[in-house]
């Protein structure tokens, strides 16, 4: 009897239909002077995805991750965005973490019906669009915090991100200043093979978890997630992230996104 039960269980597993595969994409610079942008984000996204996969919280789908290099160049970003949009398994994009490249790629994603989460770019610098979820701060005085780190702690690429608020304003602090971020990113170096997490690691980790929440919500409601379904789910997400509760307003902006002022 035990042998028959074992064979029956094996047959059930073998005959079970495979879970649908969907992808999330990161597009960021991984080469050139802005390469630190991508290398802070990449391991954090992998870490968030690994944790959620282990918890089996994707509601019946298998979520995989693809990353693309845009060199921090608007023309390259537009070309890469077209390739990303052509992949029907990509449900949403996290990118491009630099103002000029985000702006160049945005119309390509929206034309393809592909939702984009846009962290590390000021919300007011991006056009309002139903498929663009603006995770950067709306204004510097809305939810301000002070960082103990000096302005010199901000790497030069922040100047290219497009903050209009001042050279020492960012959307996240050093990881050491947030105990919850230290805990969440404790395994970061296992995936980065040495380099430590930075402020963009925090926002990338939060963006990934928001997106995974939306994919799970759409999957539970409709079986297999779609780009339109994920976009609709993103509008209803309330996620307790490392930087606070993340929720999008009617303009797809995170109204309570914090800013961090670094010292002089």
Count the domains.
1
Q: Mind telling me the CATH class? A: Alpha Beta
The biggest beta sheet reads:
5 strands, parallel
Structural class, judged by helices and strands?
Answer: alpha/beta
Outline the low-pLDDT stretches.
Answer: 1-16
Radius of gyration: 19 Å
The end-to-end distance, rounded to whole angstroms, is 75 Å
Number of strands: 10
What's the CATH H-level homologous superfamily? Response regulator
Topology:
Blueprint: H1 2-15, E1 21-28, H2 35-54, E2 62-69, H3 74-86, E3 90-95, H4 99-111, E4 116-118, E5 132-134, E6 144-150, H5 158-161, E7 169-170, H6 179-184, H7 188-192, H8 199-222, H9 227-234, E8 239-241, E9 244-246, E10 259-263
Parallel strand pairs: 1-2, 1-3, 3-4, 4-5, 6-10
Antiparallel strand pairs: 7-10, 8-9
Helix pairs in contact: 2-8, 3-4, 8-9
In short:
With 264 residues, this protein is of the alpha/beta class. It has helices spanning 2-15, 35-54, 74-86, 99-111, 158-161, 179-184, 188-192, 199-222, 227-234; strands at 21-28, 62-69, 90-95, 116-118, 132-134, 144-150, 169-170, 239-241, 244-246, 259-263.
Key descriptive features of the protein:
single chain, 264 residues, alpha/beta, Rossmann fold, 5-stranded parallel β-sheet, disordered N terminus
Give a structural overview:
This protein is an alpha/beta fold and 264 residues long. The chain has one domain (20-263): Rossmann fold, CATH 3.40.50. 41% of the residues lie in helices and 18% in strands. It has nine helices and ten strands. It has helices spanning 2-15, 35-54, 74-86, 99-111, 158-161, 179-184, 188-192, 199-222, 227-234, and strands at residues 21-28, 62-69, 90-95, 116-118, 132-134, 144-150, 169-170, 239-241, 244-246, 259-263. A five-stranded parallel sheet has the order 2-1-3-4-5, sandwiched between helices. β8 and β9 form a beta hairpin. α2 (35-54) packs across α8 (199-222) and α8 packs across α9 (227-234). The protein is globular and about 50 Å long. The N and C termini lie far apart (75 Å). Residues 1-16 have low confidence and may be disordered.
């Amino acid at each position: 009897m035990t042998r028959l039960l074992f064979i029956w269980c094996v047959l059930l597993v073998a005959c079970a239909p495979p879970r649908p595969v969907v992808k999330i994409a990161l597009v960021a610079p991984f080469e050139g002077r802005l390469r630190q942008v991508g290398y802070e984000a990449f391991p954090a996204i992998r870490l968030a995805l690994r944790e959620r996969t282990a918890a089996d919280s994707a509601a019946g789908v298998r979520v995989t991750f693809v990353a693309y290099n845009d060199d921090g160049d608007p023309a390259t970003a537009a070309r890469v965005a077209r390739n990303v949009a052509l992949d029907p398994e990509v449900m949403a994009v996290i990118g491009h973490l630099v103002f000029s490249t985000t702006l160049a790629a945005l119309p390509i994603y929206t034309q393809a019906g592909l939702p984009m989460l846009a962290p590390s770019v000021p919300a007011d610098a991006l056009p309002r669009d139903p498929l663009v979820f603006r995770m950067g701060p709306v204004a510097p005085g809305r939810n301000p915090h002070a960082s103990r780190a000096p302005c010199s702690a901000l790497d030069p690429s922040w100047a290219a991100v497009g903050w209009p608020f001042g050279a020492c304003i960012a959307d996240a602090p050093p990881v050491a200043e947030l105990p919850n971020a230290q805990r969440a990113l404790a395994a970061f170096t296992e995936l980065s093979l040495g380099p430590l997490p930075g402020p963009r690691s925090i926002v990338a980790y939060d963006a990934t978890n928001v997106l995974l929440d939306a994919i799970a919500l759409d999957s539970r409601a409709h079986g297999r997630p779609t780009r339109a379904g994920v976009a609709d789910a993103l509008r209803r997400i309330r996620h307790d992230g490392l930087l606070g509760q993340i929720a999008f307003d009617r303009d797809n902006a995170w109204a309570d996104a914090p800013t961090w002022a670094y010292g002089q």
